[in-house]
Structure formats: C-alpha cells, structure tokens
Design a protein that fits this description.
The complex is a heterodimer. By secondary structure, chain A is mostly helical. Chain A has 2 helices and no strands. In chain A, α1 packs antiparallel against α2. In chain B, α11 crosses α12. The longest helix of chain B is centred in the last third of the chain and has 30 residues. The chains are: A mainly alpha, B mainly alpha. At the A-B interface, α1 and α2 of A face α14 of B.
Chain lengths: ~60, ~425
C-alpha cells in the first residue's frame, strides 16, 4: 500500500507540468496544478496509511 | 531569478558573500547539536560523529561528481525542447572540479554555497534516524543524495534550470524562488528524513502494541537550545549570502534580509511557546526549539522577499504548525522522528515556499511556487524513497536489536559519550 501511494505521487507532478504546458489561461493552470497537488496529497496519505498498517501488523 | 555566471559581481559583493559563507557552517553546527541533544545519551557520540561523517562524505561526493550536474552552464545535451520551450534539466560541468580555478567569482561562490547546502541537507535525515541508524548507512545516504538528487534540484532552482526559468518560459513571476535553500536544503532534507524513518522503522519500544507511544525525550536540552542560538548566526549569514548569489541583491539591501530572518524565528518561537503552554500547561523546551528552527527554515524561503510584518506572520504560522505536526506525526501517524525533521524542515520549508507566492505581488509567482512544491512532493520524495530502499537492501539502515539495546555509542564506537555517568536502564525493554 505504501508503494502504491508513492507510485501515485509522480502522477500529480506530471499533471502539474502538463497544466503549465497545455493551458495558457492562468485560472485553468492554477486549477490543474492544484489537482496535481491533490493527487500528490492522496498518494502521500495512502503511503502514510500503508506505513501505519505495516506497523500495526508488526507491532513495532 | 538566477543571475548568470557572467553577471558582474563587485569586489565588495564577492568579499561580503565569501565572508558570509564562512559563517554559514554555524547553522550546520547548530543543527548537529540539536540532533544530538534530541537523541538519547547512549547514542550521543555516534550522533555527533555521524554528523561529521555525513558532512565529510557528502562534501566529497558532491564536489567530485554532483557539482558537475548542478553547475549553471548547461550543455545542449542536457536541454530538451517541448512545444518550442527549453527544459534545462542538468548542468554540464567537469567532474572532479576540473578547470574550476578559471571560472567566474560568482560561479565559485555558488559552488561553495551549494557545498554547504548539501552538507546540511544530508545531515537532516541522519538526525531523524537517531538511536537506530548505522554509521555506514548514514555515509551511504550522504554519498548518494549529493550525486543523484541534490545536484539536479540545485540546478533546477539555482543553476538556471527549468524551475528557475518558469518565469521566462511560462510567464510565472520570477520563476521558482528559493534564495536561502528552503527547497534544496530543508524540504529535500525533511523528505529524506521521512523516507529514512519509514525504512528504518521506529526505535524499539517507541510504539507498544497497546496504548500510546512511549515518550523518549531528548537527553540534553542544553545542547538543543544552544544549537538553536548557534543556528541563528549561521542562518543569518546563509540567507544574506543566498540573497546576494541567487537574487542578485545589493549589499545595502541585506539588512532587511537579516531582520526578516530574526523576526521569522522570533515569531515562530513565541507561537510555539504559546501553543505548548496552552496544550500542556507549561511551555515545552524541545517543541519551542522545533518552533524556532521552523521559523528559521521558513526564513530561508522568504527573508529576502517579504516585508518585516509578513516575516512575522509567516514565522508565526510556522511556529504554530511545527509543534502540532510533531505531535501528529508521532501520536497519530506512528512516525518516529526524534529530531522532528519532517515537521521542522519539510513542512515549514513547504510553508515558506508557498508563503513567497502568497506574499510576493507578482503575477504567476504563486503558481511558480506551487510547481516547485509539486516537484518536491511528487518527484523528489518517491525518488529519494526508491534510492533509500535500494540502499537498505545492500547496506541495512538499522542496527541489530542488540546494538539498539546497548546504545549506538557502545555498539558502533565501543565507548559512550559520557563514560563517567551512570546510564539508567531503559524501562521500555522490560
């Protein structure tokens, strides 16, 4: 689960890059960059939850 | 942003920048002391020696190899074009500093700044791995980050790379701004710390199967608080040198940078003091130290670019979020980070970078800062995690359980930092 979260995060980065290349208008750019950051945040949350789950199983 | 290497640099500016960069290592010394004080007494010598090992390894690795990719002069092979726009992703200088003596004064100072930066950035994960990270693992981290990650980030931000060119290529303000190293040093270091503690795992007994996390307070708060004072001197020099090198600030405009650095740290301390006083009934010294450091970290991003009032606001927010995040990471997210680096360096650094966009009145600047933040979270963190995961399979990060029980001093050095003191037994091992 942690690895899945970490694999999702670059997708957010590429979304942000695509936004500045594809959209000339600033509103669309900001919206898509924020979406990219949201994807990264989701990936981070999944990775953190994976870490917590693993700790719960190992009882470290 | 990013004056080219050929931009004139007066003798006064050169002498001043060099003098400031010679004071900047005080920030590294301060952070090393803080990391040592926040760890346990039976790992104190290993922690401080480890800091020296990490600094030494990082400096050699960076100057031998990494500096070639962070340099400002990009070769055409390292620039690719998409939609008619240039994406400069790496520098193309010589390995092992060949021909360095003949480059411009500004380029030489830039390299000195980056060398200090890489030393501090690699020391941050070492502090978070206190009490269980092995010295060879620290050295491995310090030999890989300055070659595979830092040079590219430094080039993108400081060396005329694609992040700094967002203003030219996409009309986003002045491009991504990071004059004092909030991104290249602190966020990189903080995210590396997160990856390191995820891979190494928590200290034994930190998170019992039932109940709350075990409190493992730092062994010497005097080191921690003195480290904070030492760090201030280094940070002042660091931010002023960064403003001259990366923003082309005139020497006469540096006083405001110093004042903003002080104000951000002071506001953050007051906020952290108040938050911990309200939360726990009494102020918490180690969390106040974290707040102070978080204020300094935010100043790395914004001290040269905002007004004194804005510096106070930015520092205050950092001082509020840093102690709360330390608590959140430990109690709710099971992240054992003795130095609080993820909160202090990564979170406060990200806030500082965002604050530059919020408080700098240039069209597109906020978006440029968001792209930088997106790069750090979406690209740098996964890459660093992957690198650390691979290293861990070759050179395990974590000491064996017996070594951890003995303490890293005895286990790795054969002697403790305080041989005349009786180290009391750890209750968490019963």
């Amino acid at each position: 689960m942690k690895y899945a979260g970490l694999l999702v995060m670059p997708a957010g980065f590429f979304l942000s890059i695509a936004a500045i290349m594809l959209f000339p208008a600033s509103i669309e750019r900001v919206a898509f960059v924020l979406c990219g950051l949201a994807v990264e945040a989701m990936g981070l949350i999944v990775a953190v939850r994976g870490h917590m789950q693993k700790r719960g199983e190992s009882g470290a | 942003m990013n004056p080219s290497p050929s931009t004139p640099f007066s003798d006064v500016s050169f002498a001043l920048s060099l003098g400031l960069l010679l004071v900047a290592p005080l920030a590294i010394a301060g952070v090393a002391l803080i990391n040592t004080g926040l760890g346990r007494s039976r790992s104190a010598a290993q922690s401080l020696l480890g800091s020296l090992v990490v600094i030494s390894t990082a400096v050699i690795a960076f100057l031998a190899v990494g500096a070639a990719f962070s340099a400002a002069s990009a070769g055409s092979d390292h620039i690719f074009r998409i939609s008619g726009r240039q994406w400069d992703w790496a520098g193309a200088s010589s390995l092992f500093l060949r021909g360095f003596a003949s480059v411009s004064a500004r380029t030489q100072l830039a390299l000195l700044f980056e060398t200090m930066a890489v030393a501090l950035a690699t020391m941050i994960p070492w502090g978070s791995g206190a009490d269980r990270l092995r010295l060879p693992a620290g050295a491995a981290i310090a030999s890989v980050l300055p070659v595979l990650v830092f040079p590219f980030l430094a080039h993108w931000t400081w060396g005329g790379g694609w992040l700094s060119q967002l203003g030219v290529n996409f009309s986003l303000g002045m491009g991504f701004l990071d004059a004092g190293g909030a991104a290249c040093v602190h966020v990189l270091g903080g995210l590396s710390a997160l990856a390191a503690v995820w891979i190494a795992g928590p200290r034994k007994g930190k998170f019992p199967r039932e109940g709350l996390a075990t409190a493992m307070p730092g062994h010497n708060l005097i080191y921690v608080l003195f480290g904070c004072m030492l760090a201030l001197a280094g940070w002042l020099a660091w931010n002023m040198a960064g403003a001259m090198l990366w923003l082309n600030a005139a020497p006469t405009s540096l006083v405001i940078t110093a004042i903003n650095t002080l104000l951000a740290a002071a506001a953050a301390l007051v906020a952290a003091f108040s938050v911990t006083r309200v939360r726990f009934g009494k102020p918490d010294a180690s969390l106040c130290a974290n707040g102070w450091l978080a204020g300094l970290v935010t100043s790395s991003a914004c001290a040269a670019l905002v007004t004194p009032f804005e510096a106070v606001v930015i520092g205050m927010v950092a001082g509020i979020i840093a102690p709360l995040l330390v608590e959140l990471f430990e109690l709710a997210l099971s992240i054992d980070d003795p130095a609080g680096a993820v909160s202090v360096h990564a979170a406060a650094g990200l806030w500082g970078l965002a604050a530059v966009g919020i408080f700098t009145p240039r069209s597109g600047q906020f978006l440029a800062q968001l792209i930088g933040i997106s790069t750090l979270l979406g690209l740098v963190l996964p890459v660093v995690y992957l690198i650390f995961w691979l290293i861990d399979h070759v050179l395990p990060f974590r000491a064996d359980p017996d070594g951890e029980r003995l303490g890293m001093d005895l286990h790795e050095l054969g002697g403790g930092a305080y041989p005349e003191f009786v180290i009391h037994r750890d209750e968490s091992y019963r």
